[in-house]
Amino acid sequence: MMPARLTPFHARGTVDAPASKSAAHRLLILAALCPEECRVYLPRGTGPEKDGPPGRPDAGGGSEKNSAVSDDIRATLSCLRALGCAWTEENGVFTLPPAAKSAGTPVLDCGESGSTLRFLLPVALALGGAEMTGRGRLPLRPMDDLLDALEKEGAVFSARRLPFMAGGRFDGGEFTLPGNVSSQYLTGLLLASPLAGKDTLIRLKTPLESAAYVDMTLDALELFGIRVSRGEDYFLVPGSQRLKAPEGGVRVEGDWSGAAFPLCLGALGGDVTVRGLKADSRQGDRAVLGILSKMGAVTETDGDRARAARGELHGIDVDVSGIPDMVPALAAVMMHARGESRLYNAARLRLKESDRLATVCAMVNALGGDAEIRDDSLIIRGREAVPGGRADGAADHRIVMAAAVAASACTGESSVSDPGALNKSYPAFPDDIRRLGGIFDVVDHG
User: Fold this and answer.
1) What angle (nearest 5°) sits at the alpha carbon of residue 317, between those of residues 371 and 271?
2) pLDDT mean across residues, the chain
3) Domains 4-17+254-442 and 21-241 fall in the same CATH topology
4) What does the alpha-carbon distance between residue 163 and residue 102 come to, in Å, rounded to a whole number?
5) Known catalytic residue: 431?
6) Which residue among 34, 91, 92, 219 is buried most deeply as judged by most CB within 10 Å?
7) What is the spatial distance between Cα 191 and Cα 96, in angstroms, rounded to a whole number?
């Protein structure tokens, strides 16, 4: 795909938050594991227009792609179907019947979704095993700590990186994990634990980072009737519990991670409101509004709406250990703010869809800003006039969105490669840019 053309503009208007990927993964998986039918409601309308697994861009697939559902959620839905859940969808309402036992070994194609892989691996083992596949950078992303923990309780893997066969059985037991590598490992074990006959005890060797994501998992389990005991360094799920579908179904909340980008547009150039957000959400990325306020932007919440408007922006230091996904969006603002900013404790960014410490730094500099990496920190020195340029999207959805935000406040036209990466989390982002008064056009620069 050709690069997207980006022009300076002052963003003004209101857009709807995309569905929270974090919440949707958890709720869809638990709904599929219920012994009775469960409905899951996604905001922004619809999913695939026909019943069936979500179609891959390169594979026909028998279903049409709708821009309201991201590729990562499609990956989870496809895997749930492979595990025997014949879900259907109509107008954004997903109906998930109890999963039937798969004939043979199911193949779970996780696409490029780390959440899908790490959440469903223990679940697949609890259901009898599966072949796990994926693409892009997913086979390169770390899994060793989770595999080691599962192996100690009897799991068997044909390889240490995708693709591999996962055999043996998950039936509870005692697991030990580092708390500072990926909260997704912990979430995967917690989501599988209701299927276990024995107690599931998870101990943490180091303090937990990204604790907000684990809180979301615990909330989802409670919603489905599962009891979890939590201590300073452990989680205990009693065995032989029964998932219960919530009466009336469950609704996926709006995504603060995605909403951060239009809110940052508002902070840079105008006045933007995002609807469909929970002000008291467990999502750690809702911290973006407070960070923008500390930088000098005008911010407020009103019911399910969050607003950010232009202010006199200045640089600040931010510990991003618990909100690593916010680094691209915040960097896009900081490169236009007065003074120096520092985003620190960012080492985990190297393990995302791209090495985000490197790709965010490169994006800022390519557009005419001033950024450098120091150890696990990104240092950004704001400039009064940033000329714009050609940014490499690095096939990473958050880098593409960050470039669009940064370009809105540049003095000249810019472009970013790999706009198709937006399908991973926020397919409607180009349309929302246009709704707010900007340009996001795919063109041939020759």
Assistant:
1) 85
2) 91
3) yes
4) 20
5) no
6) 34
7) 17
State the burial class of residue 260 (Cβ atoms within 10 Å of its Cβ: 0-12, 13-18, 19+). Answer: buried
Q: Which of 72, 325, 396, 418 is the catalytic position?
A: 325
Domain ranges in the chain are 4-17+254-442, 21-241
**Contacts of residue 174, Cβ cutoff 8 Å, sequence gap at least 6:** 153, 201, 203
- What is the model's pLDDT at position 443? 65
Q: pTM (2 decimals)?
A: 0.88
Question: Residue 57's pLDDT is what?
Answer: 30
Class of domain 21-241: alpha beta
Longest dimension (CA), the chain: 62
| Higher per-residue pLDDT: 59 or 195 | 195
- Angle between helix 356-366 and 327-334 (nearest 10): 30
Q: Please tell me the distance from the alpha carbon of residue 90 to that of residue 96, in angstroms, as a whole number.
A: 12
- What mean pLDDT comes out for the span 175-197? 92
CATH superfamily name and code, 4-17+254-442: Enolpyruvate transferase domain (3.65.10.10)
pLDDT digits (tens, 9 = 90+) for 256-301: 999 999 999 999 989 999 999 999 999 999 999 999 999 999 999 9
